[in-house]
UniProtKB/TrEMBL annotation:
PROSITE patterns, sorted: CBS
Stretches assigned to the CBS domain: 45-102, 111-168, 182-241
Biological source species: Pyrodictium abyssi
Superkingdom in the source lineage: Archaea
Protein name in the entry: CBS domain-containing protein
InterPro entries assigned to the protein according to its UniProt record, in alphabetical order: CBS_dom (IPR000644), CBS_dom_sf (IPR046342), CBS_domain-containing (IPR051462)
Keywords, in A-Z order: CBS domain, Repeat
């Protein structure tokens, strides 16, 4: 997950049958406890919420994934043999190639304006708690109202943080702070930028979201992969959910 920057990995019974058993989410790695017993894939396994067939339509796949707030879904045959994984970024690539004209409205029309954020001196263990309690994969880092970076699950995993690190830091020892591990600079766009440009950056930079800031860097909102796909469906006259 660290090397490939993926959020989810399918787990199969064996390489011969490729029968899908479930998935491991990136967040599950952050919950791993430190024990002397080596943790295996089976210990982190979860049931997949959405499973797609290769013959299914892109539109229906998008609707199913948005309905349950999933960014990735395994693709299997009728016997549950794993064939691949479809991500919202794959759907966005399709939209950019076939329906870019449906994404010409400004990002200000679809962005989320109620944003949870952290500051550079926020302890990492608090970030972990916020991500778990609010089901957030990333948080913008704000200083004096301006966005200066992003802290994501990927950053925590890259730096080797797991649950014991966060729990031990929450006591007397302050531990590392956001400013020490955040990714900089944050990828931002202005409110009047077309949604198609946000979609292009999400795909090209391989990121889950784009933050919206004014010309002075003041944070205004955020647009993520699901916002792009939902806006496309609405422009096509299809209810996303």
């Amino acid at each position: 997950m660290r090397e490939q920057r993926v959020r989810m990995i399918p787990v199969v019974a064996d390489e011969r049958t490729m029968k899908l058993l479930g998935i491991i989410r990136r967040g599950a790695l952050l919950l791993a406890t430190g024990t002397k017993v080596e943790i295996t894939a089976k210990d982190l396994l979860e049931d997949q919420v959405v499973t797609l067939l290769p013959s299914g339509s892109i539109v229906e796949a998008a609707r199913q994934m948005l309905r349950v707030d999933e960014w990735y879904a395994p693709v299997t045959d009728e016997e549950r043999r794993l064939l691949g994984v479809l991500g919202l970024e794959d759907i966005i690539r399709y939209i950019l190639e076939k329906h870019m004209d449906k994404l010409q409205r400004p990002v200000s029309d679809v962005m989320e304006t109620k944003i949870v954020y952290v500051e550079p001196d926020t302890p990492i263990y608090k970030v972990w708690q916020m991500m778990l309690s609010r089901r957030l994969a990333a948080l913008p880092v704000i200083k004096n109202g301006k966005i200066i970076g992003v802290i994501a699950e990927h950053d925590l995993i890259t730096h080797g943080f797991t649950r014991p690190d966060f729990e031990s830091s929450s006591g007397h020892r302050r531990g590392p702070t956001v400013g020490e591990v955040m990714s900089t600079p944050a990828v931002t766009i202005e409110p009047d930028t077309p949604l198609s440009e946000a979609a292009r950056l999400i795909v090209e930079r391989d990121i889950g979201r784009i933050y919206v800031a004014d010309s002075s860097g003041m944070l205004q909102g955020v647009v993520d992969r699901s916002d792009v796909v939902a806006a496309w469906l609405k422009a096509m006259g299809i209810r996303p959910l």
